[in-house]
Design brief:
By secondary structure, this protein is mainly alpha-helical. It contains 6 helices and no strands. The model has no long low-confidence stretch (mean pLDDT 91).
């Protein structure tokens, strides 16, 4: 055993699952498939525990593996979900009193849309499945930003449907990665760059 280097498990599927499940639940509300007001506590719990804390931990573990892209992505979106919890629970009532909550939330979502857009541009060294997640998420943030800024429920609902697509892509990629770890091959295709068969979905050229 002496001399064998320790190889950490890949934290990517945990981060993708935490993000995907939390996004799925919130997007069901944004798409008006379930009541937002009645079911909000459900997504807030997920935002703190799974989308927030678990994803934040995945980001920290990505730093350990040397994957800058995965570390920045998971740490940032883990922080996003935690900030979302505090935005809704602490800041939103005060914003509503001032009558400008829509513009404030729209600005918040636009900022995350900009971040997600540049992460999409950085995703091409990873699998095409990961790039699809970031593209769909960019569209989601833009639609929700426009809808909240303009108080347009139809655009918010469209953003909810885009969020459902994003969640599906994230969960698909997470499942593909767990299967890769379990079986040593990709059962679900993730379309890695260059057509390689064994590059992990969130891998970058760093070693």
């Amino acid at each position: 055993m002496e001399g064998r280097s320790w190889v950490p498990a890949n934290p990517a599927p945990l981060g993708l699952a935490g993000f995907g499940i939390t996004t799925l639940v919130l997007s069901m509300m944004n798409a008006n498939l379930v009541s937002f007001d009645k079911n909000l506590p459900v997504v807030l719990g997920l935002a703190v525990a799974y989308g927030g804390a678990a994803q934040l931990l995945a980001g920290m573990w990505e730093f350990r593996t040397g994957n800058t892209f995965g570390a920045v992505a998971f740490t940032s979106y883990g922080a996003f979900w935690i900030s979302f919890y505090f935005l809704v629970q602490v800041q939103l009532p005060e914003l509503a009193k001032g009558g400008d909550a829509g513009n404030a939330i729209g600005l918040y979502l636009w900022a995350w849309g900009i971040f997600t857009g540049y992460m999409f541009l950085c995703s091409f060294a990873a699998s095409r499945a990961v790039s699809a997640v970031f593209f769909a998420l960019t569209v989601t943030f833009i639609l929700l930003g426009i809808g909240n800024s303009g108080a347009d429920n139809s655009i918010i609902h469209a953003g909810g449907w885009a969020g459902l697509v994003t969640a599906g892509l994230a969960l698909y990629t997470s499942c593909a990665e767990v299967m890769f770890a379990a079986y040593g091959r990709y059962v679900l295709p993730v379309f890695p760059p260059g057509g390689g068969a064994r590059r992990p979905p969130l891998a970058t050229p760093e070693t």
